[in-house]
Amino acid sequence: MFYSSTQRKFWTFSSEEELRKLRCQTNQNILQRHEASGKDCSKLLTPDEELKVCQYYHNRLREFCVKFQPPMPKSVMASASSYFKRVYLQNSVMEHHPKIIMLTCVYMACKVEEFNVSIMQFVGNIRARSEERERAVDVILNNELQLLQLLNFHLTVHNPIRPLEGFLIDMKTRHRSAEEVEKLRRFAEEYLDKSFLSDACLLFPPSQVALAALWHSGNNVGMDVLSYVHQCLSKNGDGADQSLLLSQIKKVQEVVGHVTQLDASLVEEAKAKLAAVGSLEVTHDSQGTKRRLGTDQQGKQAAKRKAKQAKSEQGDGGLLTLSSLE
């Protein structure tokens, strides 16, 4: 149950402002670490740049899941999206590269959601040379434990997919014909897909996100979903409870409505800046131990390779090539 879950206790927040403060504090922690060590902080990413990088790789995560073969259940994408969001609330992209985290989140979600796919099948969905795929296997498997730690071992994700299905079934049995209710499905599922790119999973119970999806779909097909909310879901509550529920649904719609297309030029600037930070920041090797790049020629060469990759990714979307996974 969501209301007794770790998701509600540890990963559900009160407002977008609280999320903004958490992300700013994470960025500030990196800044303070550099200042304390006497390093130049001018080349570090700002909170806004970090968010753009996260949004970019979150989009890549979604594309990877959509194109995955064999077809991936949407619950896997939902869990992977939640993992990715959670990681970068309290960790910086300058500490843990989002491409590595992205792939590891998806592979972890496959296990948790019981989508039976081997690691070789998984990397087979990456367009790369065989040696790069082998390297991807090592990177993903060696980062699984680290991802578990970053998530505080909280792996259960309650997503709005099942509540949506429950509401549709309830509508069929109580109020309308099955054929009429099924008209809501396409727009509602599209809305949920969009919600995965927003912060809705960090702010609202999944049932409220599902209701927002139904309301959105009803507006598109000309069906009165609001009356269903009033008559069925809130009939045992008082007027204040109904008003609160409707207010929450509207807040969900506001948050999901904030999802817009990223400015490609700003994203590329932020990605290039992140690549350059590779020579400045603490990174993690495949054994999980820490090393510092930029103190020798190897670090400089790594930074050059990452900068070159950031530039080349503009052509292929940065999704299916692995030459920057180091």
Distance between the termini: 39 Å
- Share of β-strand residues: under 5%
* pLDDT averaged residue by residue: 84
Number of helices: 15
What is the C-alpha radius of gyration, as a whole number of Å? 21 Å
Report the CATH superfamily of the largest domain: Cyclin-like
Shape: globular
Order of helices and strands: HHHHHHHHHHHHHHEEH
Q: Which segments are poorly predicted (pLDDT under 50) over 5 or more consecutive residues?
A: 279-319
CATH architecture of the largest domain: Orthogonal Bundle
Q: Assign the CATH class of the largest domain.
A: Mainly Alpha
Strand order of the largest sheet: 1-2
Instruction: Summarize the amount of helix as a percent range.
Output: 55-70%
Extended strand count: 2
The CATH topology of the largest domain turns out to be Cyclin A, domain 1
Largest sheet, in brief, is: 2 strands, antiparallel
Q: By helix and strand content, what is the structural category?
A: mainly alpha
Pfam family, one: Cyclin_C_2
GO molecular function, one term: cyclin-dependent protein serine/threonine kinase regulator activity
Subunit structure: Associates primarily with CDK7 and MAT1 to form the CAK complex. CAK can further associate with the core-TFIIH to form the TFIIH basal transcription factor.
Keywords: Cell cycle, Cyclin
Commentary on this structure:
Belongs to the cyclin family. Cyclin C subfamily. Residues 283-326 are annotated as: Disordered. Keywords: Cell cycle, Cyclin. Residues 59-149 form the Cyclin-like domain. The chain is mainly α. The chain contains 15 helices and two strands. It has helices spanning 6-10, 16-36, 47-67, 74-90, 98-112, 119-123, 130-150, 161-174, 178-182, 185-195, 206-221, 226-233, 239-257, 264-277, 297-316; strands spanning 282-284, 290-292. It has a two-stranded antiparallel ribbon. α3 crosses α14, α10 (185-195) packs across α11 (206-221) and α14 packs antiparallel against α15. The longest helix has 21 residues, at 16-36. The chain is globular. The model is unreliable at 279-319 (pLDDT under 50).
